[in-house]
Amino acid sequence: MTPVELSRSVLHAVRCAVDDGELNVVVPSRVVVGRPGPGGRGDYATNVALQLARPAGQPPLRVAALLRAYLAREAGVTDVEITGPGFLNISLDRAATSAALVRRILGEGLRYGHTDAVAGRVFVLCVPYEVRAEVLADVLARMVGSQGGRVEVRHGGAVKLEPVPAPEECAFLRPVPAPEDPAFLGPDAARWALLHPAPHDRPRITADHLVQRESNPLFRIRYAHARTRAVSRNAADLGFTTTGPETDVDAADTPHTPDTPDTPGAQQLLVLLADHPRVLATAAALPHADAQAAPSRLTRHLLALADATLAHLPAVLPRGDEKPSAAHRSRLALAEAAGTVLAGGLSLLGIDAPDHL
């Protein structure tokens, strides 16, 4: 279960409480779930009870107790605890949710995280004639497109822009310009150099982006993707593969599945894979200024995902005389899911994801 899916489950619990007459509130359009804070428990936490307490005319702890009973009935939820002034701390059935997550990614492929959340909406993005602004606008359009929307780009000078229908309908994109033309880096490294820093930070246009070492973040991401492809080829040579959404990643004959990580990085890898749809969805908040940082946010997400993938990969294949087992199939499925998400994320950035490096 991804944070986006869990958010829907929390909303469903609220709606059920309202329908049963337990709460007299307007069901919110969205709720936020995140990692538990200090003193929290479980896999995720939400402050929805505190959010609804005032309109419900009840103490937050009372609202939390009501919602706890409904939320505990949701599929995939194993426990709900109340901490602090009324935070709901949610524990998930990792055996079910992690296996389902891997199957979902392998089934959806490069479109994992794509939705129709803003289908039919058109966002006007006003940008100056400057290389960094152009690249950011292109990636924002790709990310919004992944959520079903469309971006209309309007150009203008560094200060004056073409007229737009109405100020509130336009997102003005004015990142700190590139200090020099990044073309000498080549298309992929140039894009990375412009996209990785936050829009308000000055991009660094240097040959460091071309270094084929782990000190180079772009190389690390592409290398992690290429390694997942190499592991798949090597596994096939050893006689075992995963074949997509029906892969036996939660076989009953093994204690090792992606939901009970048995490799370094596996738990963090699962968390990052589950969070990928939320990262893509941040671009759909245009014209809010925070949405303009979505490309930079995606680069950092892919870098964290690459590091967790590289930590996971050494234990995927059997060693020595060890025979391939269900545990190895589970690890391979998780590695292939990670490679798929890395490739999909790079494609949204307009950067190639080669199978060989």
Report on the architecture of this protein.
- With 357 residues, this protein is of the alpha/beta class.
- It has helices spanning 3-19, 48-56, 60-71, 94-108, 131-146, 187-195, 217-237, 266-281, 294-312, 326-348, and strands at residues 33-34, 44-46, 77-83, 87-92, 122-128, 150-156, 170-172.
- The strands form 2 sheets. Strands 1-2-4-3 form a 4-stranded antiparallel sheet, with helices on one face. Strands 6-5-7 form a 3-stranded parallel sheet, covered by helices on one side.
- The protein is flat and about 65 Å long.
- The two termini are 33 Å apart.
- Mean pLDDT is 87; it is low at 158-168 and 244-260.
Features:
357 residues; alpha/beta; Gyrase A, domain 2; Isoleucyl-tRNA Synthetase, Domain 1; 3 domains; 10% strand; ATP-binding
Main sheet summary:
4 strands, antiparallel
Structural domain tally: 3
- What's the rounded overall pLDDT mean? 87
Helical percent range? 40-55%
Distinct helical segment count: 10
User: Any idea what the radius of gyration is?
Assistant: 22 Å
Summing up helix and strand content along with how strands pair, one would put the structural category as alpha/beta
Strand order of the largest sheet: 1-2-4-3
| Low-confidence runs | 158-168, 244-260
What's the order of the H and E elements?
Answer: HEEHHEEHEHEEHHHHH
Shape field: flat
Ends distance: 33 Å
User: How much of the sequence is in beta strands?
Assistant: 5-15%
CATH class of the largest domain: Mainly Alpha
Total number of strands = 7
The CATH architecture of the largest domain would be Orthogonal Bundle
What is the third-level CATH name, the topology of the largest domain? Isoleucyl-tRNA Synthetase, Domain 1
CATH level-four homologous superfamily name of the largest domain: Isoleucyl-tRNA Synthetase, Domain 1
